Each structure stands twice: as structure tokens, then as C-alpha cells.
Records
---
Amino acid sequence: MRTTQDTFHLAVPALDLDEAFAFYVTGLGCKLARRYGDRITLDFFGDQVVCHLSEKIDQEPELYPRHFGVTFHDREDWERLLRLARLRTLRFFAEPFHRFEGTAEEHRSFVLADPSNNLLEFKYYDDPRMMY
């Protein structure tokens, strides 16, 4: 069973590691853990994302079914990241939107696209029981 000491790991393709660094570290504020000639490893909000150098990227990404991100427990954290993304002029794939209004699953979301067209969704549920 996973504990708080364990880390979720996700690997994504990156056309250019300098661009990936600029987006994830300089833009989003992720911490660089390691850098090699063919990848960068990041502390992505407490989990591990590895950007592997690759020419196999999605030229025309669609949000469903492939994306990843963070579901925030506190709305203030979600809003803080949204302000940061705007301030640092990160590329929005989808501007902030509201889903399932009036239901238990109601949440706010926005989607960023990294330089290699990986889509990152950040959301906040009004009812924290709906996070999973």
C-alpha cells in the first residue's frame, strides 16, 4: 500500500529539455531533481515527473483521454497556481471553467499545455469528498 513516503511517477515526452525546464521549473515552480542528457526529473507537486527527450509528441493533443495534473484540496492553492500561470504567461489549452455545476462533482479546472503538447489539468472540487 502506498504511504506518504512513496512517490507517484509519470514519464512524458519532451522535444527540448531546455523548454521543458523553462515550463516546469521556471514557469510552474517545480523543483529540478536531476538532469541528464536525455531527461529531466522533477518534483511535480510532491510526485515525480520525468521529461524524456523524444520526437514522439502529440502534434494535435486532445484533453481526453490523455492528460495529468493535480487536484487541489484547497481552493486558494488552485487560485494561486492559476494566478502564477497567468503571470508567467504559460500556455493555456483550456481557460478556467466550471464543470458539473449544482452536483456533488462540481469543480473548477484549467488546462495548460507544456512545450511538447503534454496537457496538464489542475482542478479543485467544492466538495473534497469528490477528489477521488
---
Amino acid sequence: MMSLFPLARDATAAKRAPALPPPSGCWRLAWQRPGGGEASLLITRRSALANAGLLLALLVASGVYLALGSVHLAPRSLAAVLVGGGDPVARFMVIELRLPRLVAACLTGAAFAVAGCLMQTLARNRLATPGIIGIDNGATAFAVASVVGLGVSLAPPAMALAGAATAAAITFGLTAGGGSRGYRFIVAGIGVGAVFGAVTQLLLARVDMDTANAAYPWTVGTLNARPAGALLVLGAGLAVGLAMALQLSRALSLMRFSDAVAQGLGSRVGCRRWQVLAVSVLLTGLAVAVAGPVGMVGLIGPEIARSLSCPRGVPIVASALAGALVMVLADLLGRVLLAPIELPVGIVTAVVGGPWLLWILLRPHRSLA
């Protein structure tokens, strides 16, 4: 009988063999597991550098955002306020007025951009963002309905979530025969968005001026005087949505291929598609409940992230950072460009995002596959 000891010695030698070098363009992080054995993680250098660069740009933009406005603050005064000192006027301007608005800009921008990245990957098309396929308009219509008073007791965040889910369900239902990919899905979403947009205008036309003014932020997009409770709900929802999106990162990478290829590689395409849609609806509804329909961020943020990150993966973290950066810069521009007149952030992003959308349409390749 053949002895098993040589095989045991071979297995022991294989365990002690040095690890293979990481692929080109990657870093390998290895650590010992508590129960024994080694675990490792591959990090793409380009994506890591892109995330670091976007984070640094966001920090710089945040500092400029807090310093500029109707009252300009010197860097020394801003630093004194941030560490707990400074004069009362500067503290009021930064802590009470600008810092909550900056937090709202970062949270909503990240939520819109991550939702856009997920929807683009799901549909394999860069035009399939929540703003273009009608999810933003659905959330807006339901939020406005809760504000103008139609006998509905739910708060705007809950109504915005319901509206986003309704718009997504209608769009997917209309394209049940063609799936969630291709221009049929986008055209159906545009039609659904147009219907919900008309519903919003009808609701505003049938109420008094004061009520219409109260619902106005949910029609153009603004970050002025956002309620703290909505920000807390959005922050919690963004944390949950980011965690779920990162957990689905491998399935998202496989979704860029055909369904047959993804299933052959072990992905449950139908289940994963509904999970991605649920995360997109969650992030979009909560972001609209805070800032209104700032849809172009879901188009610009993922495009910036995709151009900077590794093309092999889905840039979820980079999209969140890029979306937050775009929202912060857009709101800063709206505050200082025509001061003391303030432009809503939704108008600024629409002016910037319109040419960007035309550029994407004129490019020869628009698929994410």
C-alpha cells in the first residue's frame, strides 16, 4: 500500500510556500486569521489612488465651502471655529448655517451618485440614472403630495421612498418583455418621469401660494434649511445602502456581461437585479426627501468616478466621493455666483449636467459592457 506521509509532507510544504505575487497594478494585503491560516485582499492601485484623490478634493472643497459666502472667513478664523474657538459671529456662520448645509450636500450627492452608478450598471447604459428614468420624479411627486396635504399622514421621506418605488415598479413593469437593459427601458422611464412631473405640477396648481412655496424645494432641488431629522435618516440609509452595494460588488461586475455569462459564473441574476434596484430606490428616495430632484448628480458623479478608477470594477466608493464633491461645488457656486441672490443647487447641476448629457449622447460608445 502506498504511504500517505509523502502527501502530508507535500501539503505542509504547499502551506509554507511563499504567496504568489499580486497581479500587475494591484496591492496585496495579507493577515493571519484568528483561527489559523492567512487571508488576503487585492486592492487596485488606480482605484485606491482615485479614491484618495477624490477624498482630498472633497476635503479641500469643504473647507472652501465653509469659508466663502455672504461673510468671508479667513483660513485662521475658520480653523479656530472648527477646533471649538473663534468669535461668536464666525461660529454662528459656520456651525449653525454652513456646516449642516455642507453635510446635506455630501450626503445627498453621495446617495444620488451611488444610485446612478447602480442603475447604470444594472441597465448597462450610462443614461440609465434615477433622474432620467423617472425615479426622481416619482419621489418628488409623492413628497409634494405629502406637503400640499392630500389627507396623507406620512412624512416627506417616507412618501419619497414610496414614490421612488412606485416609479421603479412601473418602469420595470412596462419593460417586462425587454428586461432592464437597452433603450426601451430608458424610454419607458422617461415617459414615467414625465407623467409624475405632470402630477407634481397639477398638485402645485391646485393649492394656495403659501402651500406651493412650502413644496417648492421638492421641485427644483435645494439644500437651504434642511431638517435635521431628514439628514439623520439619510445618513443611516446611505450607510446601509453603501454596505449593501459593496456586498453586491462582485455581482455588479458580472451584470455588465450577458445574463447567460453571469449565471454561468455563479451569479443569481434575477435576485441580484432586484437587490440592486432596492438599494437604488432607497438612496434616491431618501436623497430626494432632503434635497429634491437633483438628478444630474447621478449622471456626473459616476462618470467622473469611472474615468478615474479601474475599468474592471464598479466604482461604488469613488462614485459616492465624486457625487459629494459635485454637490458641494454646485451648491457653493449657487451661493456665491450671484450673491446675495442664491441659485438652487438643482438649477446649477442642470446647467452643468445638460452639456455633459449631450457629450455622452454624442460619444460613439455608451454601453457599460
---
Amino acid sequence: MQSLVIVAHGSHLNPDSATPTHTHADTIRKTGAFDEVRTGFWKEEPSLREVLRTARGDDIYVVPLFISEGYFTERVIPRELRLEGWDPDLWDSEGISADTATLVASDIDKEVHYCGPVGTHEAMTDVLIRRAESVTGDPSVGDGFGFAVVGHGTERNEKSAKAIEYHTERVRETGRFDEVKALYMDEEPEVDDVTEHFDSEDIIVVPLFIADGFHTQEDIPEDMGLTDDYRTGYDVPAEVDGHRIWYGGAVGTEELTADVILERAADAGADIGDAIERVRQQTKPTTLVAGD
């Protein structure tokens, strides 16, 4: 019996923080790839400390719905799950290549396959591109468009910046977009000046965040000049300094993120059949008229 446990941050203040986690869990449940799919949170219920007690599987796969390796994935989650003998060196990673470590969770006396975060998996590049398709309503979008991947900034989290640069380079290597650049909230090049960093008239902007919150719903739209007050909303695309800005919000809310969770579990040895292909098909965006 296989159990999948998706662990995330959650929030006592933002009721939407856990929404992507529950949405992706539901998507994966529908595939039938796992006998059960559980969710656990640092700041919400069910808590990280309790979630493994609800898992009934003989093979338990834990996938962190986080963007980067760091404090939560390397310290908080293993501690709360009581993973005996955990050490970040078991991932043999320099910041973007964490894979899997199999350890005993002392609380339930079972082995747990502890996976790297979804945000550093190579499949997250596909989610970023899918986000570009979703926000423009064009499954072939690319020619004539610039693409900005947005992160917090290197001073806040060096490993987070590694994830930003990693996926920016992977999107660039596809050759699909005219320009692909990494922008930051707290460091140069800043997302505030997005139009100064691109020659393309159309610019897609996607924050590499798991859930929409203060930064993605308030700070970034106002900083880019999409609106003077986020509460009044903004157009997609929005006209800024002679450019059209297609703002996609947090990439982790894209339905295809469920695929990355499955990829992580499969890399750790989970038998998921054709679930990845089915999720990719089921989550394809509906073609829209630009501006709808």
C-alpha cells in the first residue's frame, strides 16, 4: 500500500495559502496512483507532527510543496516528522539537486521516502511554461514574448535564488521565448523595473512561489505599475510603459504542479503507472481570448 504525504507551509493569516496543496492533492487522488493522499502543514491542520500518524501505507512518500531547499526542507520538516538520522548531506545537493532520503520516522516506526522540494525539480520548468500558456490563453505562446521568472532575492534566501536561476536558464534553453530573465523583489535586477529589462513588447511575468499571498497579490502588481491599489484589481495584460504585462501570479497555483509532485514520488520509487501523463493531459489550459 502506497501513501503520498504532501507537506506545505500553510498560514494562520492567509486562508488561500493551503488552497494549492489541497487542489494538487485532489488531482493526484483522482489518478488512483496512491492508495491514499494526505496533506500536512507547518501553520495549519493537520500539522506536520501529526500527519504521518494518519498514513496507513507500507510505502510512504513525503513531498515538500516548497520552492527551494533550505530551513524548512532541511530542518523543520525532518524534525517535525521525526526522521531518524536525517542530515541534509543525505540529499547530496548544493542547493538545487535534492533527490530522496529513506529514513525511519520514529513516531510510527516506518520507513519514509523523504523527497526534495517540488520547486527544484526539473519538471517545474514545464509548469512555468504552462503558466505562460494559461495566462495568455495561447498553447503556442512564445514568439515575440519576453518571460520573467520572479523570486524574493539573493539576500533573503541564497538557495531560493539558485532555483530561480536554474529554471530561468532551462526556460531560456527551450528557445521558445524571445527573452528570458530572472528578476527579484529585493535584489537587482528588480521586478519593479520589469519594462527596463525587456525589449519585447509583450512580457509574461511569473513568480516562482507556491501560493498567492501578500507578495504576489499586492507587492508585485503594485511594484510593476499594474495598479496603484491591488484592491481595485488590474488588467491582464496591463499596459505599462509601452509594454503589455501578462502577470500570472504564483506558479504553484498552476494545476500542472500536481505533475511535479508525482515526478518527485516516482523518482523516489513510487509505482504511479501512467498518472503523470494523465495529469498532463487533464490540466491542459483551455484556449482563451486574450484579456478574458
